[in-house]
Each structure stands twice: as structure tokens, then as C-alpha cells.
Amino acid sequence: MLTFYSVLAAIIAAPLAIWFSMVWFRRPAFAMGTGAALSVLSLTQFFPDSLRLALAASLVPHAITALYAATRGTSPNKDLRFPSVIPVALYVGMCALSILWSLDRAQTITSTLAWVVLAMFALTFRQLVPYKKIRVIFFYILLGFFIACIFALLTPFGWAGGRARGVFQNANASAIFAFLLAGLSIWMGKKYYRWLLPLCFVFIFITGSRAGMLGFIAVVVVSFYWRMNTLQKLFSFGLALIALFPVGNVVLNFLTSGETDAVLLRTDNTREDTTVLALDFIKENPWLGAGYRATPPGLGSNSYLKLLAEFGIVAIFAGVVLAIAYISWSRVDSVMFGLTIATLIDCLFEDWLLTAGAPMLLIYFVLLMSTPQPQKDEDTGKKVRKPYSPAEQTLKL
């Protein structure tokens, strides 16, 4: 039955829907940002996982356009060389092949399709959106969620077990997005990182995430160390050695003081049992594993153990090749290299290094795949590169 309010809602919603559709189809940056934001939103406490399907929806109007731009040379990034798709295709192909021996074929098929969508998303929008704009869009997306997390700390649902989690489902997820934001703030320049880095540090501290704190330290140290000249590097290294043991011991004692599980940076090893289960499963299935994302529950969240449990000794090389490619591709950019090292460290404790359905991998993977690579100079034939971000300029003290 129609009511006055339902008619009024339709009158308001109709032009908004038309406007949204027009912008979605005509502006790939808007579609990319919306798809990424909805994917991250799916990891919050208030929205379903099905929002991650927005990634696939983003490709509907733009995948063909990206193919045309790549073949016709109309891409805004046409003069740049991006990371190769070969290591990604090798890994996705191995995921698809593991369907043959998977313990849960439905899950393996679904997860493989998620990788296909993620790869197409990254390849599509790096053709249609200027690479600098991609980082700016992701920076503001993460900044928006970070601000929401800060306000959420004023409410009961912003905390769980004495640990800050903001709007996300758990504290560890909040810490991961915080160190990703910290890295991007360094790329954006001093105007942003001089206030965001302290805020991210405090926020990660109150989440109690040891993995997140290690990731934050890796991002900051690698990014700034990269920018120093030789003398600054030697001086910083000497100061670090002098301060490492006394300062580290005091900080560690403070962080681990307490008797409950809620204490920040807890010393109790809650992952020991799951690690033992993972190792036992690997011993029982050493050659081919369980298939991509088909391991039984309870095997913990170490990305590397999960990789071995899923692919076994025979097929693990595909994941190893992709992880090495992460490092190789990111070495040309200080921030990207810092984010890669932070990701590899964090994934010792969290399972998202090669999990296409994880929104944090979406952020990292798209940033990485849109990182310009060195090109050969036409005159000398040598590979050259220019600083692509403020974070790559020489540090001036």
C-alpha cells in the first residue's frame, strides 16, 4: 500500500539512483573508490560480507573500457610500466588446479573466483585511473575509516576484551588498516604524516595488536631509512644499536605488565595450539595439501603455514613466487617497500597475504600493482626511474 512517506522516499531516491548510476559508469575513479570502500565496510561490525561483491560490480562498466585503453594507448598511465601479471596468473592458475584435490571444492572455487575478480579489479583501474590518484583515493578511504574508529572508541562497541577495535570486527583488523594508513600518509607528505603517524601509533598501541605494531614499525623505519643519505643512515643505525636494548627492555616490560588477557601486547601465546594443529595437518597432507582455502578450521592464522597446508610441497612454489614478486615490485618505491615488509611481518600472525577476499589485501594489492616500475632509457639502454612520491625525496634534517 502506497503511503505519503513511501512516495516521498521514491521521489528522493529516484534522482539519487540516476545520478549514482551516471557517475558510476562515467567516472572509473568513483567506481573504484566505491568498490574499495564497500569492501572495507564489509569488515566492520555493522555490514555483511556480501558488500565485497561490489568489486565485481565495479568491473561491469569499466573492464571493457580498460581493455580498449590498453590496446589503443589512451590510458592516463600509458607511458608507465606496471608489475607483470604473470606471477599473479601463475598463482591463480594453481588455485584453480587445486580444485582437483580440494577437500572443499565449493570453497576453493569461490575463493579462486575472488582472486580473479581482485586481479581484474587491479588491472582494470590501473589502466583507467592515474596511479597517483589511486593512492590518494585509498588514502582518504582509510582516513575516513580511521576517523570513524576514533569516534567509535567513545562507545562500548568500539572495544572488545579491553582492546580497541573501532568500527571493525576485531582489534587486529583495525591495526592492519592503521599501519596501511600510516604508510600512505608518508607517501602523501609531511603535511599528513606529522600528525597521522603519532595517532596511528597510539591507536595500534591500544588495540594490543603485536603484529600491527610490528607492521607499523616496519613501515616507518623502512620508508624513512630509504630516504636518508649514507651519513644519516650510519648515524641512525648507531643510535638504534645504542638504544635498542635499554629502551626496548623498558618498553617491553611496560607493554607486557599485567595478569589478564586484556593487557596490551600480551605475552601469553594464544596461537601455540593452532600452530601445532597446522603442523600436524601438514604432516598428514604433505604433498598436495587441502586445496586453496579448503583447510579445516582451527589451523590458526599464519599465512605461511596456511599456504603450505593448502598447496603442499608440490604446489607451494606458486605462492612463494608471488610473495617474492611482492618484494621485487615494491623495491622501486620507499613506501610500497615499507608496506610490503610490514605485510610480510604481519602475515606471520594474520591470514591475508594471499587471501583475495580480505579487504586489506585489496588495498595493498591494488597499490602494489599500480606502482610504476623502472624503464629502459632510450639512449643508454639502462633502467631508470624517477621519484614517484614525496616520500622518495632525500630526507633533510
UniProtKB/TrEMBL annotation:
GO molecular function annotation: ligase activity
Annotated membrane topology is:
Multi-pass membrane protein
Sorted keywords for this record are:
Ligase, Membrane, Transmembrane, Transmembrane helix
List residues of the O-antigen ligase-related domain.
199-317
Subcellular location(s) of the protein: Membrane
| GO CC, alphabetical | membrane
- The ranges of region (Disordered) come to 374-397
Main location, first listed in the record: membrane
**Which InterPro entries does the protein's record reference?**
O-antigen_ligase-rel_domated, WaaL-like
**Residue ranges of the TM segments:** 6-25, 53-70, 82-103, 109-125, 137-159, 171-188, 195-228, 234-256, 307-329, 335-367
Say yes or no: keyword Transmembrane helix present. yes
Signal peptide span: none
Q: A Pfam family matched by this chain, by name?
A: Wzy_C
The protein's name is: O-Antigen ligase
Which species is listed as the source? Corynebacterium pseudopelargi
Lineage, opening ranks: Bacteria, Bacillati, Actinomycetota, Actinomycetes, Mycobacteriales
